[in-house]
Structures are given as C-alpha cells and as structure tokens.
Design a protein that fits this description.
By secondary structure, this protein is of the alpha/beta class. Helix content is about 40%, strand content about 20%. It has a seven-stranded mixed sheet, sandwiched between helices. Strands 9-10-13-12 form a four-stranded antiparallel sheet, covered by helices on one side. Bound molecules: pyridoxal-5'-phosphate (PLP).
Length: about 350
Amino acid sequence: MTIDLRSDTVTKPTPAMKEAMFLAPVGDDVFGEDPTVNKLEEKCAALLGMDAAVYCPSGTMTNQIGINVLTHPYDEVICYKGAHIYKYEGGGLMGNSHVSVKLVAGDRGRISVNEIAANINNDDQHYPRTAVVALENTIVREAGSFYALKDIEKISGFARSKNLHMHLDGARLFNALVATGENAGDYGKYFDTISICLSKGLGAPVGSVLVCKKEFAKKARRMRKVFGGAWRQAGFLAAAGIYALDNHVNRLKEDHTRAKAIGKSLQQLSFVKSVMPVDTNIVIFELESSVSPAVFLEKIGEHQIKALAFSANEVRMVTHLDFDDAMLQKTITTLNQLRFL
Ligand SMILES: *Cc1c(COP(=O)(O)O)cnc(C)c1O
C-alpha cells in the first residue's frame, strides 16, 4: 500500500464516480451541446451565487482566463507574494495577459485592505494601471490558511470603491467553506471571477470551473479557445465533477482532521524545526538543517510514503479522499520511528 501525500490531486475516481462518468450524456461542448458540461456549469454558477460558468481542463487555465478577462495589457494585479497565480503558473500572467503584479505579504497570505490601499498606483502615466485584486482561498503556500467571509466583504467593498475587479483563486474554496461553515452562495457577490478546482480535494480526475459574472462569460469562452482548452465531449469528465460536488464536499472535514493529526505528531519530532499551523488539509513543515527534504523523502519512501519537497528546507503533505485512517496511523507510526544519523 503506497501512501501518497504529495498533493490532493493524486486521487483516483471512486467506483460510483466512474459509473456516473460512463453513464453521462455527452455532446460537442464547443457547440455548447454537451448536456453534462452545461449541467455542471449551471450547478457551479448557482452554487456560488453567480450567473455564468465555463468548464476548463485545469485550475491554471481558469485562473489565467479569469485574470485575462479582467485586465488589459500593461495593467497590474495586486496579490499575495506566494499566490499560485504568480508563483506556480509558469509566468502565465505576463505571457498570457501581459500584466505586472504588485506582491504583498499578507497575514499567512491573507491580504488586508490596508495593504491593498498602499499598493494601488496613482493614475499617472508612469505607473501600470491597477486593475485587479486577486485573492486565494485556501492559500496553498501558507498550509491552507483561509479567509473569513467578513474580511473578503471588506476587501471587495474597498476594491470596488477604487474601480478594481476581484478574482478568487478558489482551488480549495470548499476546504475553506467546510472549515468556516460559511455558505458558498455568499461568495459570488464579492467577486467578478472565481476559479474552483474539482480535481483537488473533491476527487474528480480532471477539471476546474471559472464561475463569473455574465458580462465576462463570452470573453472567458473565447480565451478558453485561444488557450487550447475548448474541448468536445467533456461531459464524461464533467460528470465526475457533478458527482464530486454532490458527494465529496462534507467529507473534506475528515481530511482536515487527519492533516491536523499529522501536524501534531510532526511537532513532537526532533528533526522537525517547525510546523505551520494546520488549518485545512495541507501540512507544511521545516526540517532541522541536518536533515534535507531529499533525505527525509528517501526515508519515508522506504515505507512507501510519499510527500513533496516544498523548498530547500520544507516538506509538504496534503490529505485527500484516498488517504484514510489506517493510512494515517501508518504515517504517524512511521514518522515516530524515523531515525537520522
Ligand atoms: C492546484 C492549484 C491551482 C490549479 O492547478 P491545476 O493543477 O492547474 O489544476 C490553482 N491554485 C491553487 C492555489 C492550487 O493549489
């Protein structure tokens, strides 16, 4: 039995999800004729309290399209300095949308109205035009920290008073919702575009959805075509997404409980220097300088456990649908038995 904690993207479809996929009615989505894709898009828009949605192959694509439809070349986007849109999308904002970024520190990645206010450029020919505030929830670089909706409300109100658009990278929005107990339907009104991933904790094999205001949907579809993501009988995959939204949201709580248990046991270990607070399903910890991530990963690999080197001295573990209590026990037992010379 291999235990794979590298990411929550590693999950395989469950038998019931596979059955839903096989039975899905499909059609050509470029013609708007895939009933299952249409159903998924309508479901996501309704769920988040918005009026449109575009189903895409990846969360990178939905983020890139989201920023693209809200900006013009030479604009600037304000975001957290470790934001996925900036740090982990291959420089796409520059390449795809020709925009610059203004990076802010945030509190574990949660950016504040004050930080935004201090980073809006004056309307002066020297400066890029500040166009978008982009938030991430949960925040992957900060071990899945999350916003309270009331803080998002403040940020959105302020941004709009400055004529800025709002984008949300909600790759793990449902982890945040499960953690806060807040309502998905309250999110839409604070954003112009929201990206959600079905392929992370929700356990679908592929797919992300850009949920947006109607005025941006046509351009979003156009840009999906330009980026090569307009697909045909994608309903087989959309069916997995629908199944995931219907069946795999509440269980995210279990992932959070297991991640917290891993975090707690890591804290006791002599070769672990520090563990970031575990708020949802992501555990990030720093090793003592005598133990490199490569050596640590090799050791746990001998016990068929996989994790991810996250920086020169950090390791990441992410819990998910295919990680159960027996695997948790084995992981904790293994960690407790590790010895480094
Ligand atoms: C995974 C992830 C994405 C999108 O990733 P894809 O692998 O392209 O689907 C976007 N934002 C965050 C925060 C993520 O963790």
